[in-house]
Amino acid sequence: MSWLLKRKPRVEPTKAVSNATSMTSLTPSQLDLAIRDMLSINPPRNRSEEYCRGNPITSSGKRKQLVKMTSIVMIPVVVLTGLTANTFFTTFTNYINSSQIRDILLYSVELGKVIHFLQEERDMSALYLSDLGRSRSKSLLLQRYPETDRALEKLPFWTTGPTLIRPEFQSKDKFLSYLNRHRYELDTLNQTVTQELEMYTSLIRVFITWLYSAITEAQSGFIWRSLVAYQEVIIAKEYMGLERALGTIFYMEGRFPSQDIYLWFSESQDVANETFLSARRYSDLVAALYNKNIEGNEMLLVVLGRMRAEIRRNDRGGIGSFKTAEFWFNNMTRYMDLLLETQRELAVEITQVLDERQASNLQKMVAISVVFVCVFILCPVIIYAVYSLTNEIQKYSITLADRTKALNKEKKRTDTLLYQMLPKSVADQLKQNEVVTAENFNESTIFFSDIQGFTQISARSSPIQVVEMLNSLYSCFDERIAVYDVYKVETIGDAYMVVSGVPKKNGKRHAAEIGTMALDLLDCIRRLEIPHLPGTKFKLRIGCHSGSVVTGVVGSKMPRYCLFGETVSIAAKMESLGKPGRIHISQMTYEALITLGGFMMEPREDDCVLCDRELMMFFKERKESFRTYWLVHRDGMPRKNHGSSRYSSGESSEDESKQHLDGKEHLFGHH
Fold it and tell me: What PANTHER family does its record include (predicted)?
């Protein structure tokens, strides 16, 4: 059973593009597409993506490209500017902090002097109030008052926050008034030595509180440990001052007036030692300066150590001595002066470090300012350079797209010509410099045809007429075979060779494709006349054979895709032994068409083929039957005369010659 199947024609090979269109006349949209093809840019999927990309051909697109290029260049500049600004801000902050720390250090130095002179005034006042020392210490006490007042006057500012509950500390003048009133009323107050010590100690503790609040880690930063060590030295001196005063009382009276005073002395001594040890732990500079100042005064430490042990034992037996008390006081004063010298040198070292840090920060700020100026000067230059470069790149892109478009056209034209000479798969391998190896195809069908009486026609025609005749004939053939799964191998003179199943395998359909194509070509040639011989029509002789072939590319200068094997020879024999207007097929092709079904064939009755020795030897070696057939008709095609027994001459009737098959619209298949 066979029927007519409607099929869509195969797409014909790409035709060469005319050179009439000049690349210089491309429109902006064409250039845009060319650039996108060149850069493999997919079309934007949404408006935001389109806005970000920009069209490099239009003015707005150029502006977008310029903005993007400028942004890419300016981002590092902005980042560098930001980092520089951050560094400048950090350096400036460090510079300000160093200045503030320096002010705090100067304030601490002056505050330490106030505490030192208040300690001496406290000790002298306590000595004055003792029964044994009143007559001798009056002049020494009066000498301490001006020193304390001058130290108070040198304080850069007066802190009132932590001491608002004490009215005498609300201002410097009020404190001086309070201190002077106490001095003048010292003889009439009837205060004990302990009370005097407690009064001055309470005043000193307020100033120590100010000292603690002035130095914080957040404010002092990198120099904080040195400042804390400096502070600890001052605190140690304060407790040593208490130790000096209480020890003086001990030697004046030969004993401690009470157990509380003894405990006070012990506490002051222990706190002083621990505080000074803490200062040396905070800063190695304290230990270095202390050892330097104590050098040559080792005997002083021995004497003080012995007297401290004696006071801790409290074994004088109530025998007081002003001379011994004065000796203790003077030695402790010398030792405290050594600590004061250590304190001053430590302040000098800290000040020097701060000055160096400030100088370094100032140099950094100057350098950063120079960088800022350079950046602000170079920014316009960079922007202009980017603008010029982007403009040149855009011009070059357009030129490159123009040339790429032309190159693509030439490439398509070249590929079209190449695919007409070689199969596409083979041509692609050759373009990639790959070696095309020979390949065996077990199933294929070969078609051969030539023009009956071509020699006589050529004798009656000029060479140009022969070329025009063959061109019109084979152009028609090329157009018809494009709708079938076949490959045109070559044309030599009036010979036309086509194969199916090569180079693209199509299973068992190769015989049907060739058979249908042969019927179509016979119908097509019936409607053609020789251009320069009106009324004379072509007579085509066709032969087909099925079997295996070997394919390969021959040559390197002009490579040709060739078929080799006995199948080619037998197909040529089928054509040469055929008759005009008829399709001569072999036994193998006949069996393949019978298997597929839908084809009408007739056995060849004459013995012309049997006379061919080559064919006889070929089939005899394979022990196969040797019969050939005429392909007459295929089911579903308009019925024509293709050389049936009713037309022994091979010519069709007048009515049948007017019918034709439009191969571009219909293809005929089988089930």
Answer: GUANYLATE CYCLASE 32E (PTHR11920:SF501), GUANYLYL CYCLASE (PTHR11920)
Determine the Cα–Cα distance for residues 100 and 224; give it in Å rounded to an integer.
13
Residue 131: the pLDDT is 57
Q: How far apart are CA 186 and CA 173, in angstroms?
A: 20
Segment 90-106 shows an average pLDDT of: 78
Check whether residue 439 and residue 537 sit in a common domain: yes
Of 108-112, 261-265, 618-622, 663-667, which has the strongest mean pLDDT? 261-265
Q: Is 532 helix (H, G, I), strand (E, B) or coil?
A: coil
CA nearest neighbour of 428 among 553, 331, 289, 564: 553
d(CA 31, CA 394): 12
Question: Quick one: 70 exposed, middle or buried, by C-beta within 10 A (0-12, 13-18, 19+)?
Answer: middle
- Tell whether 158 is covered by a domain: yes
Number of domains making up the chain? 3
Same domain? For 331 and 469 the reply is no
Strand partners, 600: 633
Q: If DSSP codes are grouped into helix, strand and coil, which group holds residue 16? A: coil
The model's pTM is 0.47
Find out whether 421 and 532 touch, Cβ atoms under 8 Å: no
Radius of gyration of the chain (CA): 60
CA 418 to CA 431: how far, in whole Å? 10
**3-state secondary structure string, 297-344?**
CHHHHHHHHHHHHHHHHCCCCCCCCHHHHHHHHHHHHHHHHHHHHHHH
Q: Looking at the structure, tell me whether residues 492 and 601 fall in a common domain.
A: yes
Judgement on whether residues 405 and 444 belong to the same structural domain of the protein: no
Residue 332, C-beta contacts closer than 8 angstroms, at least 6 positions apart: 240, 243, 244, 247, 304
CA-to-CA distance for 312 and 526, rounded, in angstroms? 145
Q: List the one residue out of 288, 253, 287, 248 whose CA is nearest residue 268.
A: 248
Q: Residue 518: enclosing H or E segment and its boundaries?
A: helix 510-526
Indicate the SS3 state at residue 439: strand
Distance between CA 280 and CA 226 in Å, rounded?
10
pLDDT at 611: 57
- Tell me which H or E stretch contains 584: strand 583-585
**How is residue 449 written in tokens?**
């045809």
